[in-house]
Amino acid sequence: MVNEETTLQSLLRNRKIVRNYKDSELDFPQLSEVAEHAIKIPTAGFSRGIEIVHISEKENIVAIAKYSNEDSYVAKGFEKWISKSLSLFLIIINTKAYHDRYSQLDKKNATNSEDWSIPYWFVDAGASMMNCMLLIEEMGLKSGFLGSHNMDIENIKNHLSIPNDYLILGFVTAGVEKSTNVKKKNTKRKKLIHNEYFTK
Ligand SMILES: Cc1cc2nc3c(=O)[nH]c(=O)nc-3n(C[C@H](O)[C@H](O)[C@H](O)COP(=O)(O)O)c2cc1C
Prior knowledge:
By secondary structure, the protein is α+β, with helices and mostly antiparallel strands.
């Protein structure tokens, strides 16, 4: 029997970061449901400290593009990316939710959340990022990701009324891919999977 590729396997195989979107006449009402499904993630201690801001209004998308330095990106010769997106999904982190949860009685033997060697909120935030990307892929659109190191966090928080003590991981972009003939980087194959034992 031939092993058929499952839906999820196909979504994972086809997903790729796309940074060039074209204008589209079509409506994608499913975009308004992405956040609701993407937030279905496990969170450390069930802290529920990850939240998603869905941005779909053109003027807000344009404002976020400005605060994400799109102008300097375009000046380097790249196409507009953020402002051409149909939706942006900001992944934001409420670290206080984790600290509050891990100071509860049933967690008194767990490592204090202030001392985690790997803060679990970044793990949880990454899970919601990936959910967004797969849901976008599933509706026939393409996703990208802009990390917060590339943006004016203060202005974005002000513009979207995000509380000051929240962290912004970055945002997932969604759009209709403009051209599929973007040159692929000639990257050497890297060994990323190990069976039983770590091998070089
Ligand atoms: C946490 C994280 C941060 C990223 N930040 C950026 C970014 O700021 N700008 C950008 O163009 N791509 C960013 N990327 C995308 C990566 O640079 C790269 O395009 C991606 O790993 C390619 O994966 P793919 O070929 O499987 O699509 C980021 C990806 C991740 C997971």
